[in-house]
Amino acid sequence: GAGVSQSPSNKVTEKGKDVELRCDPISGHTALYWYRQSLGQGLEFLIYFQGNSAPDKSGLPSDRFSAERTGGSVSTLTIQRTQQEDSAVYLCASSWGGSDQPQHFGDGTRLSIL
Amino acid sequence: DQQVKQNSPSLSVQEGRISILNCDYTNSMFDYFLWYKKYPAEGPTFLISISSIKDKNEDGRFTVFLNKSAKHLSLHIVPSQPGDSAVYFCAASGAAGNKLTFGGGTRVLVKP
After folding, report:
1. Does B99 contact A33 at a Cβ distance shorter than 8 Å?
2. B5 to chain A: which residues are within 8 Å by CB?
3. CB 3.0–4.6 Å: which of A19, A39, A94, A104 could bond A29 by disulfide?
């Protein structure tokens, strides 16, 4: 499709396991963002990529969280040794880059840590 | 500290009438503002945006107004339709980077 694609749509895992979340941005979009929305909380920024570089990682909550982007396209968000407080909807967005370009979101991955 | 606030958690409006959603911000470095609509189990959908050099932007039934001196923006939807029932988020970005800072959302219910 033409939109941002995220997989899996749902993920249930046990505390302590590692998880990988994938994002396929809109073709040609140079900027890619990860956000999360915890239960009862607003959308919070995690990390921003321009091309394959991440100039802003300020929202990553701990060193258990990491992300990479390859080929200026697909991105993977990895959470190591998951904790229950990591349960949230993880949203990916992409844009043409620049401060006046709207970000377009995927439908997210709902992550549940048991 | 919440840099972007939507003080009304919910709004109910009759079909055909105007919906007015409000948003306040505190960071004077914000220079680009957006409104998103979100249905359950879906990602936010971009509706309309405005740059800080403008005070109004219109797209069909949606108009966004920006009052920089008051650090306030609003979204007008007219006429409101039942399909507009959703949660609406305002968001802002600024010179510090392109990341979006979101308000807490306003749930809109349009009654037939």
Report:
1. yes
2. none
3. A94
